[in-house]
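Q: Protein A?
A:
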Amino acid sequence: MEGLAIWSDENTPSLITLTVMGISTALVGILPTFAAIGWAAPIILFLLRVTQGLALGGEWGGAATYVAEHAPHGKRGFSTSWIQTTATLGFIPYPGGHHDIASVGVARRL
């Protein structure tokens, strides 16, 4: 039972932050438009995005700690650097994707 208690204590913050992120993201997906609920829509969207940011901040620290604790001896810095590197790599394809999405929107309006 002791092993289960340790596992539970270590993973509870991760489960909480992942759950908060998932719920916030799902709620953004079903959020009514400005036309439907007026100024409540951007206010709710702002609050959901803040909630996502707080969950991300909690998960980021937990991920770095987890990776550092489980990395091979002498490779902690290299292993934890991948957390930051992969987050940055996610931004690389965005500018091109944004252009493609914008051009589709323009074509539909014409």
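Q: Protein B?
A:
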Amino acid sequence: MVSDHSATRLATTRLAATHLADICNTGFIVSAQAAVAWNKRGAATSRYPFPRAIEQAVGAAGLHNAYRLGCLLATTALVGALFLPLRRSPAQQTRR
């Protein structure tokens, strides 16, 4: 079980890493454009954002599968709970 503190720390770290990657991408694109001829700038510019877009799509697909697995486990737990014997309230129990 992940605590609220750990989840917050993870979200903050991910947000910081995303912003750092954005800052680095700008430097990579500018340096790639400076290293190639004018007519090759389009290919050099697309070299960095395209793989990142693919990685994000793969990550989203993985999260979708994790969501589906979580729903399956939650449904299984709910169905399992329905088969547990019902407890009687202490107020409804008869004395011997």
